[in-house]
Amino acid sequence: MASRRADFYYDKAKKLWRKQVTIKGIRKVFSGKTKQDVMLKLVEYQQGVTSCPFFRDVADEWEEQHWTEIRQGSWRSYNAPLRRIVERFGASRMDSITPKHVQTFLNQLGKDYSAKTVSQHKNIISMIYRFAVVEKDLDLTNPAEHVAVPSGLRKTTRTALTQEQKRIIADPENSRTFLLPFLIYWTGCRCGEALALQFQDIDFKEKTIAVTKAVAHNGNQPVIGAPKTANAYRFIPLLPPLEKRLREAKMKPTDYICTGEETTLTKSALDKRWKKWCAEHGLTDPDGKPAVDRHTIRHQYATTLYEAGIEAKSAQHLLGHADIKTTMEIYTHISKNQFQKDAEKLAAYVSEQ
Hints:
DNA polymerase, domain 1, hpI Integrase, Chain A, 3 domains, 48% helix, disordered N terminus
């Protein structure tokens, strides 16, 4: 019989119920989303259950072990897919889930979600099985290994900025009430990187900007941490329009550039100010929602690099991409768009002859 070391307690940080017991001199801690989950694990352990674990239990362990290793921004994107996966496969034993089960699941997702989102579900299933094999030493075959994301699914694409949108965002006068769009436009920083830039990161003598940190939001609160990847640590040029604007700013070294204060933006404040700024400058869709997003403005910086003749390898550094393939995909996309515009101009010219 197990002797109680401690009663149930709730770990608020990891949102798990825990129970610590000593069984035959061995101290064990059982965790789960609910008290029932914890008791089920305890009973199975006491009875020496050797059958393959349920998917939900391994998924819980994987989440608990890896959530601190993943950037907050990335983890938010994992949350919803993980919940859907556990809802579908949670009550199944790990060794009972077949490639056909996973393929059917992905096909169903494809009716409502983009190719990128469906692919993310497939990758999470693979990561959980990899965890089960490597960390838990289970003899399993990954059922997601040989399945495919359904073809013909819609792809998430961003529309390039129009000439009028570029003019509005690049105008320093329009940055007086909110500097972030202007800052991203002239640095190409990710939103989190731009939010983390402080006045002391600007070197006016060398005309460079040091990107050494990024803001991620834990719920609503901003958390300053490392950039997305090792390649995201970089120096980028301080371009003349931004230099002129920042020289006018009266900031202390520790002030965050996007706020002009020693604190950066919460998630709700960021969304509110972005929506308000877009509305003030006519950058909204018919429903009153922002017509441009932060990443589209960053993409414009990549377009500027391409148009300026910057080689892809240099663009990779300036954009902070971990893989040159990412940069090349963007450059190829820009090139195709330019070709299409040139082809239309040529066709129009020939038609007038």
